[in-house]
Design brief:
Blueprint: E1 8-17, E2 24-32, E3 38-47, H1 50-56, E4 73-80, E5 92-95, E6 98-100, H2 106-109, E7 120-121, E8 140-144, E9 148-150, H3 157-160, H4 166-176, E10 186-190, H5 194-205, E11 209-214, H6 220-225, E12 231-234, H7 238-243, E13 248-253, H8 262-265, E14 268-276, H9 288-293, E15 297-300, H10 306-319, E16 325-328, H11 333-341, E17 348-352
Bound molecules: NADP nicotinamide-adenine-dinucleotide phosphate and zinc ion.
C-alpha cells in the first residue's frame, strides 16, 4: 500500500480530513495518469453522504487518513482512454461508491459488482496499483469507465449528484423487493435524511403508498407536501406506532445511528420485509419476537451494481426525480458536516466543487 505510486503524475486540489476530529482542510495530492480503461472527470458537484461523516470521524474504525471523502460525484469528461467506447469528451457523467472490482467473480459477471469480495471504493479503498483511493471532494477524478454512468440530460448536475449513492442505495433494494414492477404496495421509509427523502420520491413514482417513520415531527409537513408521503409516524410516539402495526409490506431503514428494530418490525404485515441500509457504528438490536410472530424477514443491501446504477439514473430521468439539496461552497464543508451530524439538513448538502453555481 502506498499513498502514491509512480504513475501518479497529476496534481489535484481537494479537501481531506487528517484525523478523527473529522475537520476538513485543503489537501493537494496526486492522481494516476488516465489509463486505457479510464476517463478523467472534471468534478462539478459532490454530495455529502452520512458515510462521509462516518469516515472522517472514523466511526467504523477503518479510515486511512488523510481521507478525501465523496462518492456522489457529477462532472464532465475531459479525457478518454483508448479502450473506452461508451464515453466521449464533454459527456455529463456520475461516479458513485465503486472504483474497482475483480471483474471475474460470479457477482462481477452478473452485474452485481457491489457484492464482489475484492471491491474497492471510490475513497478509502486501495486501487490495483496499490494507491489509496481519494474521492470527490476534489477538482478532478480518474475513474475506470466501468464504474461511471451517464447523467440524463434533463437532470441538473447538482441535484442529481446524490443519486450516485443515496439514490442507488434505495433503488437497489426497491428493485429487489419487486417495487418497480408491482405498484400499490405499502412501503415504509425509516429516517427522512439523504437516503430517506429520495426513497420517498422513488416509492411514490413507482406507485406505492408511502409511510415515513421519523424521529423528527418537524419533517411531517414537508414529507407529505413536498415529497408526497401519504402517512407520517413519529417513531418516539408509542400510540402512533401502535396504530401503524401490521400495515406495511416493505420497510427501508436508512437510520445512521443505533436504534431498536423491534417497533419497526411490528409495522410490517405478516411475511413483510425490512431492508436495512443505514450503517450505524454500533450493532442494532434485533428482538426475535416481532420476527417470529410475523414471519418477517430482515436483510441488508449495499449500494448497487453498475448496470443497475445506470438504470436508476435513467428511471430518475424519466420520472424527473432529483434530490432536495443545499448547495455549499467548499469552504463550508465543515459547517455542513456539523449540521449533518445534528440532523439539520433538508435533505442533502452538495458541494459546488467547480464553483459554477451562484451561491
Ligand atoms: P442522513 O441524511 O443523516 O439521514 C439519516 C436519518 O436517520 C436522519 O435524517 C434521521 O431521520 C434519522 N436518524 C438520525 N439519528 C437517528 C437516531 N438516533 N435514531 C433514529 N433515527 C435517527 O444520512 P444518509 O446519508 O441518508 O445515510 C444514512 C445511513 O445510511 C448512514 O449510516 C450511511 O452510512 C448509510 N449508507 C449506507 C449505504 C449502503 O450502501 N447500505 C449507502 C449510503 C449510506 P429522522 O429525522 O426522520 O428521524
Ligand atoms: Zn454514500
Amino acid at each position: 500500500m502506498a499513498l502514491e505510486t509512480p504513475n501518479h503524475t497529476q496534481t489535484v486540489a481537494g479537501w481531506a480530513a487528517y484525523d478523527s476530529s473529522g475537520k476538513i482542510a485543503p489537501y493537494i495530492f496526486k492522481r494516476r495518469e488516465n489509463g486505457v480503461n479510464d476517463v478523467t472527470i472534471q468534478v462539478m458537484y459532490c454530495g455529502i453522504c452520512h458515510t462521509d461523516l462516518h469516515h472522517v470521524k472514523d466511526d467504523w474504525g477503518i479510515t486511512m487518513y488523510p481521507v478525501v471523502p465523496g462518492h456522489e460525484i457529477t462532472g464532465v469528461i475531459t479525457k478518454v482512454g483508448s479502450n473506452v467506447k461508451n464515453f466521449k469528451l464533454g459527456d455529463r457523467v456520475g461516479v458513485g461508491c465503486l472504483a474497482a472490482s475483480c471483474l471475474e467473480c460470479e457477482f462481477c459477471k452478473n452485474s452485481q459488482e457491489n457484492y464482489c469480495d475484492q471491491i474497492q471504493f471510490t475513497y478509502n479503498g486501495i486501487f490495483w496499483d496499490g494507491s489509496i483511493t481519494y474521492g470527490g471532494y476534489s477538482e478532478m477524478l480518474v475513474a475506470d469507465h466501468r464504474y461511471v454512468v451517464h447523467v440524463p440530460d434533463n437532470l441538473p448536475m447538482d441535484a442529481a449528484a446524490p443519486l450516485l449513492c443515496a439514490g442507488i442505495t434505495v433503488f437497489s433494494p426497491m428493485k429487489d423487493c419487486q417495487l418497480l414492477e408491482s405498484p400499490g404496495k405499502k412501503v415504509g421509509i425509516v429516517g427522512l435524511g439523504g437516503l430517506g427523502h429520495v426513497a420517498v420520491k422513488m416509492a411514490k413514482a413507482f406507485g406505492h403508498q408511502v409511510t415515513v417513520i421519523s424521529t423528527s415531527p418537524s419533517k411531517e409537513n414537508e414529507a407529505k407536501q413536498r415529497l408526497g408521503a401519504d402517512y407520517f409516524l413519529v417513531s418516539t410516539d408509542a400510540k402512533q406506532m401502535q396504530r401503524g402495526k401490521r400495515t406495511l409490506d416493505v420497510i427501508l431503514d436508512t437510520v445512521s445511528a443505533k436504534h431498536s428494530l423491534g417497533p419497526i418490525l411490528e409495522l410490517l404485515k405478516v411475511n413483510g420485509t425490512l431492508v436495512v441500509v443505514g450503517a450505524p457504528d454500533r450493532p442494532i438490536e434485533l428482538p426475535s419476537f416481532p420476527l417470529i410472530f410475523g414471519k418477517r424477514a430482515v436483510k441488508g443491501s449495499m449500494t448497487g451494481g453498475m448496470k443497475e446504477t445506470q438504470e436508476m439514473m435513467d428511471v430518475c430521468g424519466k420520472h424527473n426525480i432529483t434530490c432536495d439539496v443545499e448547495l455549499i461552497k467548499p469552504d463550508k464543508i465543515n459547517q455542513a458536516l456539523d449540521r449533518l451530524a445534528r440532523n439539520d439538513v433538508r435533505y442533502r448538502f452538495v458541494i459546488d466543487i467547480a464553483g459554477t453555481s451562484k451561491l
